[in-house]
Amino acid sequence: MTEAAARAVLSDDGETISLTVYTEAGAAVPVALLPVRAVVLGNQLIAAAIPKLACREKSKANKRGGDPRAQQRRRRDEALCELHNLTGEGKPLEPWSREIAQRLVRFQPLAEETNPERRLMQEVKDSGLPIGSDRIRKVVGRQ
Amino acid sequence: MSSAPVSVSDDLDVFVRDRKVSLSPAQAFNLAEKLIRKATRQIVTDEADRAVVLGAVRGAD
User: Fold this and answer.
1) pTM > 0.90
2) CB-based contact A38 B36, cutoff 8 Å
3) B37 lies in a domain?
4) In total, how many domains does chain B have?
């Protein structure tokens, strides 16, 4: 049975490339990779990621009519993705989504926001769309 | 350290032994970049070392 792990970390001591996956509890499972295997794995990751991006671009291009709040939704989703790039890189998505949802509930915009993180949060709030941790996780997970 | 196979699914799940890590496309590109950079560096270093050894052997002949 496969157990879900929280993150994968790559390290290199100059001789061995190691990919280590960590569980939420902190347990580590390291594996050594030959350089050629590492290149193959990198290519597989890129090959699997490209269709996801293409799919996202296609869904953006195909959207017409139907959803009167499509523009707000798109702005909100883009702000969430940027927020994730800024504050969530390398963190497990689920707890990050919960934390952002809680912070958005408490968020009180200033007259002029200069902090990039707070500006993105303001954009999310300004969309006027309801936003919970599940929605955040789905939106960011699609990126 | 284990050298068990690592695999990637179309859904961007990375399987390492009995563990699975789900990645976003951005995380997948990030990991791919690191894998390829580190592997390329090692391959180039190995090739350079081999050339030095071969040069030394030929010089001794």
Assistant:
1) no
2) yes
3) yes
4) 1
